[in-house]
């Protein structure tokens, strides 16, 4: 449980948990949102990855979203089928599956 005591000029945060890491992180995120509201800036809850393509283009992607929204998965290698293809989707009614092939480099 995270408790916020918000007053003019004061924002206290109390994190009650056997393991305070996740609760404290969510609490600090709440503090940053509150500061941003007062000072006019935005707090992003995001993960960022930078990719260099085979053509030396640099692409930076920021995925902003709630907990459990797949942000940290951006940093993982793509999950491939045994033959190396990437599964794009599956029709749960017909069972039809769509794939793409991106060579390993």
General description of the model:
- The protein is of the alpha+beta class.
- It is built from one helix and six strands.
- A two-stranded antiparallel sheet has the order 1-2.
- A hairpin with a 5-residue loop joins strand 3 and strand 4 (58-64).
- The chain is elongated.
Instruction: Give the CA-based shape.
Output: elongated
Q: What low-confidence regions span 5 or more consecutive residues with pLDDT below 50?
A: none
Number of domains: 2
| β-sheet strand percentage | 25-35%
Q: Write the element-wise H/E pattern from the N-terminal end onward.
A: EEHEEEE
- Considering DSSP H and I runs of 4 or more, what fraction of the residues is helical? 10-25%
Numbering strands along the chain, what is their spatial order in the largest sheet? Answer: 1-2
Q: Please tell me the overall pLDDT.
A: 83
Number of strands: 6
């Amino acid at each position: 449980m995270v408790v916020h005591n918000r007053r003019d000029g004061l924002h206290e945060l109390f994190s009650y948990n056997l393991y305070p890491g996740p609760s404290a992180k969510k609490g600090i995120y709440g503090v940053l949102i509150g500061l941003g509201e007062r000072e006019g800036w935005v707090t992003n809850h995001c993960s960022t990855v930078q990719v260099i393509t085979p053509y030396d283009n640099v692409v930076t992607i920021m995925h902003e979203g709630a907990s459990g929204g797949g942000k940290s998965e951006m940093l993982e290698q793509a999950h491939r089928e045994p033959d190396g293809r990437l599964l794009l989707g599956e029709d749960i009614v017909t069972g039809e599956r769509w794939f793409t092939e991106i060579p390993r480099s």
